[in-house]
Design a protein that fits this description.
single chain, binds N-oxalylglycine, 29% helix, binds nickel (II) ion, 8-stranded mixed β-sheet, 4-stranded antiparallel β-sheet, 340 residues, alpha+beta
Length: 340
């Protein structure tokens, strides 16, 4: 396996291979302003119509929102974050024993991106990825160390998965799509990505993750308290996503952009590093199974709003996503209908 950043970064200056070209370098990093611009939606409220409206507006304007009073217990969130941090704090050898380095396996560990061997420069991140559903089948592939990983993370993914269904139901009502639309293949293959960004010697020159859109319906992200890193691209500017204790950051992915026939936008975002502390995050990707067709929902397509995207199996979309990676225009060309 390529050397995980966590296993060699200590005391080193930034290697040349991590220095990004000027166009994508973050450059000067501003001290984050504490006013949170990304909307925060209180899911505990009783006015469902108002909640739906807030979600839809945030999804259209930013492609991002945060949720509070979401029903996932705070102690479970804390336990899960602790176990994710403990995983990445283990020795490289221990981590390697727990997972595969084969990206086609059910549980794997990699550094930088899926294209380490061919990419021109690397990114400052290690990631653990595994599938979550059905739990009885997937759990056997998850790390056995830390010893409570399976126990805690199975409870966590079960709760976050329920939250995902709730959010998609609200979105479906807002779009005018049947709530059942999302209850089958489109959400059948959720995936956990446990990201780890060690302290970085020069955060102005490199990134944890470059600008991208998630190849999913939605991502439900857990950040650590007090640690900034996630930024959203809007109106040619980068906006920090404030870490709010026990909140989840939700973003719209490219697949939901397709299903909504462009009514919701897959949000562009990136991750900057920091020189003081390691930062760990957990993405819960709400994802289709490989054979599921992704296409604009029929009720959103009519004479005045023709289909912008063609229909294709998720696996074809995902393979194209992996090879086009940073160049989303290339991906856009691939998924668009020729007439649109
Ligand atoms: C991702 C992602 C953000 C973060 O996993 O796709 O954008 O802050 N993560 O780790
Ligand atoms: Ni992302």
């Amino acid at each position: 396996m390529e050397q995980l950043v966590a296993s060699w970064h200590n005391g080193r200056s930034l290697p040349e291979t991590y220095v990004l070209p000027l166009e994508i370098r973050p450059g000067k990093l501003y001290v984050p302003v504490s006013t949170n611009i990304i909307p925060v939606v209180d899911l505990g409220g009783h006015d469902e119509t108002a909640i739906i409206q807030q979600i839809l507006e945030a999804s259209q304007e930013f492609g991002f929102f945060q949720v509070i009073n979401h029903g996932v217990p705070s102690n479970l969130i804390d336990e899960a974050m602790n176990v994710f941090k403990e995983f990445h704090a283990m020795s490289a050898k221990d981590k390697a024993i727990q997972c595969s380095n084969d990206l086609n396996k059910n549980c794997f560990l990699y550094t930088s991106s899926h294209r380490y061997a061919t990419e021109k420069y690397h990114f400052w991140r290690d990631s653990l990825t595994h599938f979550c559903h059905p739990l009885e089948k997937q759990i056997q592939f998850w790390p056995e160390k830390p010893t409570r990983y399976r126990n805690v993370v199975s409870k966590y993914t079960t709760e976050v998965s329920k939250l995902g269904s709730t959010i998609l139901e609200l979105i479906s009502k807002g779009l005018g799509v049947s709530p059942e639309h999302f209850s089958n293949g489109l959400t059948e293959n959720p995936k956990m990505i446990v990201n780890h960004y060690p302290p970085c010697p020069d955060p102005t020159l490199t990134l944890g993750v470059p600008k991208h859109r998630d190849p999913v319906l939605i991502n439900i992200l857990l950040q650590e308290e007090d640690l900034y890193g996630l930024q959203v691209f809007k109106d040619e500017e980068w906006i920090d996503v404030e870490p709010i204790p026990h909140a989840f950051v939700v973003n719209i992915g490219y697949v939901l952009q397709i299903i909504s026939n462009g009514k919701l936008k897959g949000a562009e975002h990136r991750v900057v590093t920091n020189s003081n502390s390691a930062r760990t995050t957990a993405s819960f990707f709400v994802n289709p199974s490989d054979e599921t067709l992704i296409e604009p929902a029929k009720v959103l397509v009519n004479a005045s709003s023709p289909a912008l995207y063609r229909s294709l199996p998720y696996k074809d979309f995902h393979s194209k996503f992996l090879v086009t990676s940073a160049d989303w225009k290339e991906l856009e060309k691939f998924v668009r209908t020729t007439s649109a």
